[in-house]
Amino acid sequence: MDNIVTSSLPTTAASRNLSNHISPFEATVVKLLKQHGATVSSKTNMDEFGMGSHSQNSFNGPVLSLFKKIGVPLSPGGSSGGSAVAVASGDWWAALGTDTGGSVRLPAAYTGTVGFKPSYGLLSRWGVIQYANSLDTVGILAASVEDAGAVFDILNQYDPQDPTSLQPSVRRRIAANRRTPPKTLRIGVPTEYNIHELSSAVRAAYISTLQQLQNLGHTLHAISLPTTKQALSAYYVLAPAEASSNLAKYDGIRYGFRSEGPDALPRENLPLYAKTRGEGFGEEVKRRILLGAYTLSSEAIDNYFIQAQKVRRLVQRDFDRVFATQNPLLDSKPGGGGDEVDIIITPSAPTLPPTVDEVKKQSPVEIYMNDVFTVPASLVGLPAVSVPMPLSDDTVEMEVEGGDVKTTGIQVIGQFGDDELVLRAAEIVQNL
Fold it and tell me: Which residues contact 5 (CB under 8 A, 6 or more apart)?
């Protein structure tokens, strides 16, 4: 669940606003920002426990985008939709959010802002309420790549309070593994991301981006990431499984909301705190808890959870094989066939943002498909940033009739620990 922070960076500049998703007690990232002149502002609205792709699953009501179509507000993306809208409105200079499977990058793509998910473990998660521990990452939303990088430079520190924070020895290894950024980038274009669900407007913006990069002298290389086809399915096994475990503490006895009156219902054969959990969680959260509890059960764990972990390892192997830089967490690099790339560029979302009325008509599976391009990088902890790119006039006329959205998100993905190269490449895309 999310807080908001305001900040001025650097400290000598005039005060500028910064917002973020964090828990009620002060998180390490908040303290670091305060040390550099940050001012706590308020809280943004978001999907309950970060579970959602459109910020419509909130106890406080849905988040509405600044953009509309035929008078109906568009989805701001999720789960960090409130922070994205805050930045898109210009009221906040930058924002923090939590990105588990795309919850910073998707809102950025839908609101015309920059959304950066750093490498897993670089930014402290102390103070962040857990959704899925092996996936949760503090991310940054900003109006420009440069502003996102300024926030990242401050927050990129080891935190002994966070057990998932990368140790100083690992950070030194990452620094030693870092190459001098090449003047011309070898850009990977994964064939598996050319799905039939990709809308014509997003496809046109994607192709235009690649063509412009090629015109600047950067080279394009078709690559294959075959296991990414299974990445989304694996994610929706692993993330709910971890969520079901993390949210078990919300029983109204030791922690969290408690319902009125007696909680145990022996006549209905329900255990203690069943009523509390039934009333305290929203429908999407209950759906994912049940899904996760089942996949961890003795009868299903081998066919679901264990298989998903195997897919996760294969996804990582696919990425390690195509990147020119070796993964600093591994002792050796899988053979790549001599055609490795510096970065990978994909769309951030397969379609333009739907209206909130259209979201209500979508099934959970249709909503989950929205994360198809962001989940693979999350599964293996890679740095990724979504940069807004303008839509062409032709596609605006075809697909945005009656609407005022004018951009879509283009995603830049890099090797683990190559965050600076990802931000540099994102600046190049931004300047197109």
Answer: 18, 19, 20, 22, 30, 33, 34, 38, 39, 40, 41, 96
